[in-house]
Input
Amino acid sequence: MPQSLLTIQQYLALADWRFAPTMEEGQRDGFYWLRSMHLVVVDPLDLVRPAVPFAVLATYFDWHGGSAQVYGHEPGWRALGHFALSETAAVPPRLYTEADCAFLILDAQKYDDDHLIATLGDFEEPYLFEPVSPDAPQAMPFWQALSTLRPFCYFSYGLSQGLTLIMREHDDYMRFMDRLPWDMIEKTYRDDECKKRREEFELFGPELGPEVCSVPDCDRLRLKNIFKCFMHAIA
Ligand SMILES: [Zn+2]
Output
């Protein structure tokens, strides 16, 4: 048997698994941005909030106009065009993140509805669905709206793209980075991987043989329904 082949026990115990989070960072128009698939389990407002009362503008939920529908009739919210605006408060309202979604956090500055609608116009979320460069032309209207509104932050959860976070103040951005709960994040990914591997094993079952694996030089017994051992079957 090749030395590199794990036993099933080692595989299920994640003996070969290492947590290697990825993150991209940058700056643009005076904002600090990051995006990371691994930070999709983090709520930025849990880690850093404006020092003054703030409002949440939900700009996207599942589809363009979805946030107005989801939040529009919730207490403390009202629909605003395709969007939904929360009341100003010191703590965030409950946010739904079960689908692609995006939020602008507007702090103590004053906004009237007409100003918001005029500025946001056909505001599109450039980062929810594709790994678009922040400098890409299609992101221009987005950054123009951000530069005009100067929100405390913007964040979006893309099911395929992870968390995108854009913050106005460097101190707040650094505070967010310092407070990232890496232990919790790693545990979440470890638990997911563990569950995935156990499900694989439940699907393929034990190496019962009696024949050996069909891969040359492998002397492990084959699975019940596949002519390979478990590790070669999932490779
Ligand atoms: Zn094998």
Summary: Helices lie at 8-12, 44-47, 66-71, 113-120, 140-149, 170-179, 182-204, 230-234.
